[in-house]
Specification:
Elements (H helix, E strand, L loop, with lengths): L5 H49 L13 H18 L23
Length: 108
């Protein structure tokens, strides 16, 4: 989720035990759990209120859909899939094997 793996969590837990002590650590863990629960509830309520305000057209709206990076990725993926489905056609006719390409003096 935040790029924190098991070794990092072990280091954080070890530092927490050293800083807060084993007596206060369970209370801090409970407070952190309550805080995380409140933040999830807050995000859920914000999403539901936004869906309500926008109407039934946006009933499947997720907050991560509003992230600009997600929007850009979505449009790039759509453009790439369209480009792969419909390759551009050559504008210049292909030359024969022994044909010399045209040379434009005004262009150089």
């Amino acid at each position: 989720m935040f790029g924190v793996g098991l070794p990092e969590l072990a280091v954080i837990a070890f530092v927490a035990v050293l800083v807060f002590g084993p007596d206060k650590l369970p209370e801090f863990a409970r407070q952190a759990g309550r805080f995380a629960k409140q933040m999830r509830q807050f995000a859920r309520e914000a999403r539901d209120e936004l869906r309500e305000e926008l109407g039934p057209e946006y009933a499947d709206l997720e907050l991560r859909d509003l992230d600009p990076r997600t929007i850009v990725r979505k449009h790039i993926a759509e453009a790439m899939s369209e480009a792969m489905a419909d390759p551009p056609k050559a504008r210049v006719p292909a030359l024969d094997v022994d044909e010399i390409p045209p040379y434009d003096l005004e262009a150089t």
